[in-house]
Fold each of these.
Amino acid sequence: MPRVAIAACPDYQDDRVSAAVEAALSALGDDIVVRPGERLLLKPNLLSAVGPDRAATTHPAVFSAVARALAARGAVLSYGDSPGIESPERAARASGIAAAAEALGIPLEDFTLSEAVENPEGRVLKSFQLVRAVRAADGLVDLPKFKTHALCTLTGAVKNLFGCIPGTLKAKEHVRNPSAESFAAMVVDLAAYLRPRLCVMDAVVGMEGNGPRSGTPRRVGLILASTDPVAMDAVCAALAGLAPAAVPTTRIGGETGLGVADLERIEAVFFLPASMEAAVAAQRECPDAPRPTPPSVSGTAAVVLAPMRLPDFRLPDAERSTIRFVTTKGVRFLRRAVLNRPTIDPERCTRCGACVRACPVEPKALAADGPREVPHYDYSRCIRCFCCQEFCPAGAIDVRKAPLGFLLGPKSVLPI
């Protein structure tokens, strides 16, 4: 039975983050294998060049705490990620992780260099380009952020590994796998190939709503750790009020054996370090905080997480699945009726062109008539990958609900 360790952490104060990370790692015990002198690559979420206050990237305090803990266990560390349309250096600098890494003497790997990989065991990802530094490392440490995602519903430990494919080559995989189902299967294949040694999630302040970049920061107050990325994501789904099967990467990851997605078959261990009791008690006065939890508790995830569900957690307004027949030319009217679509708010749009650059299809599914014009969509080309929304720096792209979108089925939610 895989274990997910959950430690309370009310804010990003360094000593509190370090205590929470150490508590979570200690709870995993012998599950963590770090051999002295081996090279471990830290993979934070560096979605784009935004500051840590936006809750779109792994917080530097979490990065530093995990790095110190692993270095103390004898690991030799480096780090990296590959944002979709920006340079890794710029994203690392803006997020604060570059400064944190420099303070600890941890180098940034070159995530622009890749090499071809054959993956005959993959269901959909049979071959792909992988960052060279990932293959060169002895092990990968996954540092995801607790966030919503328009295509995947939630982005966590499994989805974070997509950053091991260089940014300019991610578009190819979006085009090859346009639906939420096929994209999730592709990412699960990638995760199965990479097999991260350890996953530590920054859920101190997560994101809800219009994620993964332009949503609303949401205090969660937790640090999670596990050696099973699927189990970790299943726990996150439960915190958000979802059944794990409602998140495509989690469901497919469980079905294919990448990890365990059944909450009844996951052991959850919760800790409230004594040094944080007062701060956590104060946090619980906030209306959006989880309900009280004992200072420590363990059991199946279904039991432990029951009182910890985030009240009124807002999910993204994107379709949960794509029905193949609505993508054919013969039923374009049905596409418009049942598939949600991205839309641009001209009042918020800064005409920067990031959405056009992020669009993975050729010809592009959106374009501007001039340098100071708001881009417009050609929905017949749009594959609903929501990359435009993901990389819009102004948060000007929303998802318009289709009038018959209910035909795709409601999300599965956990009972309260």
Note: The domain at 3-308 is CATH 3.40.50 (Rossmann fold).
Amino acid sequence: MTRLLLLLLMAGVLQGCSLLFVAKGKTGFVAVKSQEVPKAKSLSREMDRTDVIHHKVEDGETLRFLGKAYFGQEEGACQIAKANHLGVHSKLKQGKILRIVNPLNFPTTGELRDQLKAFKENPAASVNNSVKPQDPVFTPKDSVFNEKDIVQLARPQLNRAFALGEKLVYEVKALSVVAGEATLEVDSPVTVEKRPCYPLTARAKADFPFSAIYPVKDVQTSYFDTTDFLTLKFENNVSEGNYRAQNLEKYDQVNHRLWRRHNSDDPEEVDIPPFAQDLISCFYYFRLLPIEVGKKYLIPTSSTGKNYNLVIAVVRREKVTIPLGTFDCYLVKPYVKHDTVFRNSEDIDMWVTADLRHVPVLIKSAIVIGSIEISLLEATLPEIKGISNSLVEP
């Protein structure tokens, strides 16, 4: 359930979760005093170094294929060939180790296997030809080599969006029926790998009568570096119907590696892009950005051992009214970008406040049998100088 809320908030992909939330208590805002958060020396320089992946060639792989896989276009073959002192048409020997320098994509072993199968079946296929024609926001001109509309921002140095003690409570209606509750909360800082981190905790549960049909009790926590604003650890405990899962992920942001254990399975390690976020932290990271109407923002994201780029388009500025009040907001649309193709499997609109907090107050999404609506019910907001604690229009 929390996965659903977070995916709606940021990732823009529904993955079959049920819609079970319930709202309790009175609506409103509570202001609390801000508290100092420990800081540490930034590791950005170490993390932003030239990135090199050592790829072991599998049977059937070619420079042309690897160029598509790691750079999104066949022109990437030239970069790989140059980095390995090869001709661009050189044949690759199985087992050879190639240096992939500054890749734009970070496919896992399984993803490479699937891509190679598809490539062999249709080697002439382009990765740029499957943008939905009805999509008004993204066009075929958007690619990893030509992303003129995606804003290239320096990483934020200051957090004026949220702080220790923030708590957001959401009501979710499925087919116009209130069905459950979810909260997003910034807890007291803890230390992870000798770094101070905000625990960003998402909780969700179903309530009667929906809990009798499909009980839900989820807790997921991202440990978000208070200085460099990225994930160092992610863990969750998911209970949805008959499904149970416990996951632990540890992010080595300097070496761009992720250690992951799912339930009692053997742990796995995968490459991740520089400055990777998990699904919860990317929501908070987006709130730190100086967003503008008409711009797109890209956040490298890793989830369940898979890497992709989350792209958020800021469509327009407008006022929205929910039971809590009227808000001056930006309408944003999240998309997921695989290779050079933008995909949005669901029609999702999200309204975030147009102040520096960028608090999501309303999310709407169409589903096969109707629609769902997530609206802010209660908010506990730490005081931030120069920013209102009420968020609503007077």
Note: The helical segments are 2-11, 44-47, 63-71, 76-83, 109-121, 210-213, 279-288.
Amino acid sequence: MSKAPTKLPEDHFVNEAPFDPKAIEQLTPEQEAVYLAPQTKLMWWKFKKHRLAVFCGIFLLLMYVMAAFAEFLAPYNLEAKNSKYIYAPPQSIHVFHEGEFVGPFVYDYKKELDLKTFQRVYAEDTSKIIPLRFFCSGDEYHFWGMIPSDNHLMCADINKPVYLLGSDRLGRDLLSRIIYGARISLTIGLIGIMISFVLGIVIGGLAGYYGGWVDLVVQRLIEVIQSLPTLPLWLVLAAIMPANWSPILIYFGITVILGLIDWTGLARAVRSKLLALREEDYVLAARLMGASPARIIGLHLVPGFMSHLIASATITIPTMILGETALSFLGLGLRSPTVSWGVLLNEAQNINVVAITPWLILPVVPVILVILAFNFFGDGLRDAADPYG
């Protein structure tokens, strides 16, 4: 039998030249800034690349600023009405009159009565102009119900009608009421999502961390809630609220209802994530060091899927806005004198009214824009929450 040839040892090269630190490849300042940047800065850099998400974020910020300063931005007070201009159509802004520049203004209304339909017919009276004034004194109000003032961003001369989006059945400015309604419609999603997130993270976290009978009970509870039809469930819960409640109590009641219904999807997502993450080594290390379950879930497990929570939040907020709008549109949610976009759309239930006065459905425009903005903004935040993905 022939023996296998012995393998000779390979030569080992040793560089005997002195060590030169300058010979090592050096990082450029840009590369060093990236490698040493904290997590928040990496998230911001990646979020800025999502142009549509940045634009939607700016739009949402402006909408919430508008809601915060509704009294100042609205041309008229919330309940200011003029019975002479019922169902007045929207006016367009002009800057030139008879070929001359006169600044922003609107033309006055010319009213006629249609003897066949007994309806008021409005037309532009091009012989009368109504100049628009900015940063002026107008209807008195209490800012956030506390600070008296009469300053407005835009207003017209006293007793002169300026309805850029038309008026309703009582002669109230629709633009002012849409601006006031943003305060309710936009904040109801933020408050509702707090309730939904607390329930979803706590209940879903306990089910995913402990498993066993706790997980079994939570899953059966979620299945029971999700099996109920959403709209009839809204109707039943809204009907429970007493009719003699104040608008503020009804507002918080609707918020709690929306939060109690929308936590199930988030709870299941948290449960599935925790079932996978609870077996990681860092969780075992934290448990051996004596960390409590609340600390392990809050400080070690939940940050591991923060991007999913951000995406869920941006989806849940428009869902709650739609829920409030649907309930108020059906007359089972918020009611007058409280003003929200759903309450304003309640006046557009009659198809005859919509056919004659189509501007009454304009409150649906901010609802659509806000929901789309939240969805695109959530996409950008979800991608930015995982900058290494």
Note: The chain has a mean pLDDT of 81.
